[in-house]
Design a protein that fits this description.
Strand content of chain B: under 5%
Helix content of chain B: over 70%
Largest interface: A-B, 75 and 67 residues
Number of strands of chain A: 0
Number of domains of chain A: 2
Order of helices and strands of chain B: HHHHHHHHEEHHHHHHHHHHHHHHH
Largest sheet of chain A: none
Protein name (chain B): TctA family transporter
Shape of chain A: flat
Distance between the termini of chain A: 66 Å
Number of helices of chain B: 23
Strand content of chain A: under 5%
Oligomer: heterodimer
Largest sheet of chain B: 2 strands, antiparallel
Domain DUF112 (chain B): 21-438
Shape of chain B: globular
Keywords (chain B): Membrane, Transmembrane, Transmembrane helix
Strand order of the largest sheet of chain B: 1-2
Distance between the termini of chain B: 47 Å
Number of domains of chain B: 1
Organism (chain B): Planomonospora venezuelensis
Transmembrane segments (chain B): 45-69, 108-132, 138-162, 169-188, 200-220, 318-342, 354-374, 386-407, 413-443, 464-489
């Protein structure tokens, strides 16, 4: 196998170390207990340490003899739009109601595709909102108001 | 005959009109998502879980199970026709199946897959019916120490699910276990890692993790490279295999069924393992080894049978021990719990109608799949023409709505974003998401049984080694870990896998 540095390996290792370390730090704030009666902090401490150790091993291995993984392009626009769309839904579904929240979410997501025209996106979003309303509110009797209190109804 | 009585009870439940109907809906949906690349059974079941809350428990489970094995089936159709496996276990089918399609023998390949799947599904249903009750009785003798060791074994075996290095898979499992500790501690009620947010006290919802890791992350991957898929599908004709083909597929189907039924029982991704193993076996014993990779019908029939048999028998750990063997099974645990049933050895005695009804429905589902697939093959092929620009916004929107409707908790929706991004980055770095999901589901069981076992043994950790069943399970886990990690053995494994590719 070819020996080389692998950026993805180091990145993955770093993420594991970071998350594992954060959980270890957090679990020290809880009671650890004794082996007989383990406190709430003991298990996360153990597993967090394991995650951090495995992450370290992955990162070190990535520096010495990494797995050859091509990282590829990153669709920044799509990521930003999809994140925005889903966050918007969570933030506004209660206030704006089901229909406006779904419509905006659907429109933002549709625009995440690279070669989409605005008119097509509006049409797709309208269709998806109608479908979503039919399936979830009419069909499944989901109890979310169609139009929310922020709109003054 | 007790077995016959049980099966009669099962069929009388499964043949109720609404159960047949939802079984049909399940396998139909399952085939659809199996055919469509970019959406898999895990994300689908996660999105549909809230819908089933209003159903009878047995109806809900029949439909969810239908989605699961329907998707295995649909995945092989696209693997054969356009060399695009819809499900990870269909990757092997694509090797020879697509070659056959290019030689104009798509019909024979599809028929071999269908016949193999049906035979395997039928046999594995019987295995399930025969093996589950005694296993459930054994499981009743399991204490916390045995459960801990069994869960650990399941987690380690799930390394086989991942294509990357064993080290990364292990880290993903541990990360999943770690994320599972968010929320209130089971013994003391202390809220852990909740940042003072009451919404997080109940823990991170499993559906958010599944939808984020398998739905959103997968969509982001697909949006990297938006070439339109041009499906050059020749017309499929001559579905009925020739006499020569029929003779050649008998052995592979039978061997594949046996292998699949045995490997499917392993908690943690037996079906992928089963199809790879079956392909390797068929290649090794075949007299026409050079045909493999160039359209050998044995290379389609064997793995397809193995994969379908494993999909059925992977219900054994779920129904007898309450251990999910696949992310979809983990979602089904959620469905059991919502309906007030704890999955485990007691299901078979407390809810015989549900237990046997579910098993019988699998056989009915297999019949429905054959009826659905062979005549409707043109329809499935046409479905591949749905533009991705419509498909992916639909998945995102329905995922957001579905997740929100679980508990009307906006944090569940934010969690999709978090896990979508985390999953995307980790997948890009060569880490597979399935082990993380299994770790997330099994983690709380691991912690609970570890702590309970230690309380019972008065803090003596040697209890895991002195109880015989637990010791055997731990030894198996250690062996599995050694196989996955040790370089010498791994190199040999790579050679086996390289031959397959």
């Amino acid at each position: 196998m070819e020996r080389r540095r692998s950026f993805p390996d180091v990145l993955a290792g770093g993420i594991f170390v970071l998350i594992g370390g954060a959980f270890v730090a957090g679990s020290l704030g809880y009671e650890l207990g004794t082996p007989l009666r383990m406190g709430p902090g003991a298990f996360p401490l153990l597993v967090g340490a394991a995650v951090a150790a495995l992450g370290l091993a992955i990162a070190v291995k990535g520096l010495v003899a990494g797995e050859v993984v091509s990282f590829g392009p990153i669709p920044w626009r799509a990521i930003a739009l999809i994140v925005l769309a889903v966050l918007f839904f969570g933030l506004t579904v209660r206030g704006l109601g089901f229909v406006p929240a779904s419509a905006v979410t659907a429109l933002l997501t549709t625009l995440a595709g690279s070669r989409v025209r605005l008119l097509t996106a509006v049409a797709v979003a309208a269709g998806l909102t109608a479908a979503g309303t039919l399936v979830f509110v009419v069909g499944l009797q989901l109890r979310i108001p169609l139009w929310g209190p922020w709109l003054g109804f | 005959m007790e077995l016959l009585d049980n099966l009669a009870l099962g069929f009388s439940t499964a043949l109720l009109v609404q159960n047949v109907l939802y079984c049909f809906v399940g396998v139909l949906l399952g085939t659809a998502v199996g055919v469509l690349p970019g959406i898999g059974p895990t994300a689908t079941v996660a999105m549909l879980l809230p819908i089933t809350f209003g159903f009878e428990p047995v109806t809900a489970l029949i439909m969810l199970a239908g989605i699961y094995y329907g998707a295995q089936y649909g995945g092989s159709t696209t693997a054969i026709l356009i060399n695009l496996p819809g499900e990870s276990s269909a990757a092997v089918t694509a090797l020879d199946g697509h070659q056959m399609a290019r030689q104009g023998r798509a019909g024979a390949a599809l028929a071999a897959a269908a016949i193999g799947s049906f035979v395997a599904g039928t046999a594995a249903t019987v295995v399930l019916a025969v093996a589950a009750p005694p296993l459930a009785r054994i499981a009743l003798a399991f204490g916390p120490a045995e459960y801990f060791s069994l869960v650990l074994l399941g987690l380690i075996v799930s390394i086989a699910l991942a294509r990357g290095t064993a080290l990364k898979a292990l880290a993903m499992i541990a990360l999943g276990v770690l994320l599972g500790t968010v929320g209130q501690d089971i013994y003391t009620g202390t809220p852990r890692f909740v940042f003072d947010r009451r919404e997080l006290y109940g823990g991170i919802d499993f559906v958010s993790v599944a939808v984020g890791m398998f739905g959103v992350a997968e969509i982001l991957r697909n949006l990297e490279d938006e070439r339109t898929r041009t499906a050059i599908v020749s017309r499929v004709r001559n579905l009925w295999p020739t006499r020569e083909d029929r003779r050649r597929i008998v052995g592979p189907i039978l061997r594949g069924t046996g292998l699949g039924a045995a490997l499917g029982v392993l908690p943690g991704g037996g079906h992928v393992l089963a199809s790879f193993t079956s392909y390797a076996v068929e290649k090794r014993i075949s007299k026409r080894r050079q045909e493999f990779g160039n359209g050998a019908i044995e290379g389609v029939a064997g793995p397809e049978s193995a994969n379908n048999a494993a999909a059925q028998t992977s219900f054994i750990p779920l129904l007898t021990l309450g251990l999910p063997a696949h992310p979809v099974m983990a979602l089904m645990v959620g469905a059991f719990i919502v309906h007030g049933i704890t999955p485990g050895p007691n299901v078979i005695t407390d809810e015989p109608e549900l237990f046997w009804g579910l098993i019988a429905s699998m056989w009915i589902g297999n019949v429905l799949l054959v009826l659905l697939n062979l005549p409707l093959i043109g329809f499935w092929v046409r479905m591949l023409r749905i533009p991705y620009q419509v498909l992916f916004p639909m998945i995102i929107l329905f995922a957001a709505i579905g997740t929100y409707s679980l508990g009307f908790n906006a944090y569940d929706v934010y969690a999709i974003v978090f896990f979508g991004i985390l999953g995307y980055v980790l997948i890009k770095c060569g880490c597979e998401p399935a082990p993380l999901l299994l770790g997330f589901v099994l983690g709380p069981l691991l912690e609970e049984n570890l702590r309970r076992a230690l309380i019972i043994s008065r803090g003596d950790a040697s209890v895991f080694l002195t109880r015989p069943i637990s010791a055997v399970l731990l030894a198996l886990a250690a062996a599995a870990l050694a196989v996955a990690v040790l370089p010498a053995i791994r190199r040999r494994r790579e050679i086996v896998f390289a031959e397959d590719e």
